Amino acid sequence: MALRKAGVEATIYEAYDTTADGIGGGISIAPNGLDALGAIDADEPVRAIGTPLYGNVITNAQNVKVAELALPEELPPLHFVWRTDLYRTLHDQSRERGITTHRNKKFLTAEESPTHITAHFADGSTAQADILIGADGIRSTVRTLINAENPPPHYAGLLGFAAPLADTRTPPTGGKLHITHGKRASFGYLSQEDRSGGWFANLPHPEHLTLQEVRKTTPQEWLRTLRAAYTDDDSPAVAMLDLTDPDQLLMTGPLELTPPTPTWHRGRIVLVGDSLHATSPTSGQGASLALESAVQLARCLRDHPYPEAFAAYEALRRPRVEEIIEQTDQANQTKARPEARKTDPRHHSATWHLHHHIDWNSPT
Ligand SMILES: Cc1cc2nc3c(=O)[nH]c(=O)nc-3n(C[C@H](O)[C@H](O)[C@H](O)COP(=O)(O)OP(=O)(O)OC[C@H]3O[C@@H](n4cnc5c(N)ncnc54)[C@H](O)[C@@H]3O)c2cc1C
């Protein structure tokens, strides 16, 4: 959509034949993500599917508040969305704007000529274009095509789970996400005025499991494991797990993030989103950074021929995304080792990354 606004014709080639129904858990779209969507007039549809969040309340295993993060007043609230809804909304928006998505097109490789690039897909088909943008997520094929030395994502030592609840049977959380740093694991939940809401859990798990491996264990068994992890905490975790319909348990898989990516672009190929800078869901920034990068890349392509555009894009984005990933990595190390946790409230006070504005009309 950003490319379209920049006057660049774009076509999407997606590996799956469906949208992301039931895939992934809750995602927060931070003020910086909403700002990026605003730059391409796509923020309102996302606000419409989201629940506004005005901050976090952090408690310890004894239910003592150790920190409260309030969003600065000048910023709009974060919006909590289910990944399924976000995917569908952006998909519908792109379709309304006349952008074509070809499905069942698993990208395998590409070859460049002096005049164009040709992408090859698993079904044997090909597509030609001036440039190829690898927006193919954390397990990106394009990432290693650009540079085989681009390191793979690394596991943060945590598995993610989440579930919506029609009735949390918990008092409303006043538009704030409540997070308990328990004895063994962290647990977050949200309860709205009508007491609907949901929860997420980050379960320390030394062994790296893929999402497929996580799914080999039944939801009932995972709910039992989660229950055991929270049983010594004074928090609503166990009660909410007991209320959870196993069929509604969202297994979001291993929390992973990418180490700094040495090569962002090569020739006619460039990376964007999680393929380039995946922060784990604990940062609350994965989708927002992906949105920012997509808009910034489009602005650069609007203003420059592609080689200069890619260089301008990297210069604009690299310092910011690497700093945010570094911060998340540190936070995850603490979550994966609860015994090493510190409760210094200053650890939760940084909101610098939320203050990010993209002025679409200014030159890059
Ligand atoms: C299964 C899953 C669950 C997630 N759950 C959460 C969550 O609970 N909370 C959270 O904050 N974030 C979650 N995320 C991350 C969040 O969705 C991303 O940070 C954010 O959406 C970044 O978007 P992206 O477009 O860069 O990557 P993605 O959202 O990963 O999108 C990449 C797209 O590329 C497609 N693709 C991959 N490989 C190929 C290929 N070879 N050829 C063609 N298409 C390909 C994928 O099918 C996908 O549609 C999840 C991501 C995934 C993949």
Automatic annotation (TrEMBL):
Domain FAD-binding, chain residue ranges per copy: 3-327
Annotated Gene3D superfamilies: FAD/NAD(P)-binding domain
The entry's keywords: Monooxygenase, Oxidoreductase
Keyword Oxidoreductase on entry: yes
Pfam family, one: FAD_binding_3
Biased composition (Basic and acidic residues): 336-347
One GO MF term: FAD binding
Source domain of life: Bacteria
Alphabetized InterPro entries for the sequence: FAD-bd, FAD-dep_Monooxygenase_BioMet, FAD/NAD-bd_sf
Region (Disordered): 328-364
PANTHER family found in the cross-reference section: MONOOXYGENASE, PUTATIVE (AFU_ORTHOLOGUE AFUA_6G14510)-RELATED
Annotated protein name in UniProt: Oxidoreductase
Annotated organism of origin: Streptomyces albus (strain ATCC 21838 / DSM 41398 / FERM P-419 / JCM 4703 / NBRC 107858)
